[in-house]
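Researcher: I'm preparing a figure for a lab meeting and need a structural model of a single chain. I don't have an experimental structure, so a prediction will have to do for now. The sequence is pasted below. Please return the structure as tokens so I can convert it later.
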Amino acid sequence: MVTLALCLGIPGAYYYDKHQGGIVQSVEPAGQVMAVTLTDGLLPGALVETDTGFYALTQGVSLPKDKPLTLQVRANADRYLCDASQRCTKLLGAR
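Model: Understood. Here is the structure written out token by token.
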């Protein structure tokens, strides 16, 4: 009985979280791009510097200078940095 509950519960929780990740709860300005630094190694990513702060991303990203960015918070508490074309990249340690 416990095995059946786990077999149904774990995939259900995964799909619920994935669905919640598609729902945008809030959007706020994140400033204009000043610099992007790519990191390599065990956990490759990027550090984006804007005129309002720094954002560590889970993967590399290419962003033009002086373009505005937004910070989206999703229903599952993940945070994403997005450009004007709505291309979004998840922030490192977003939860």
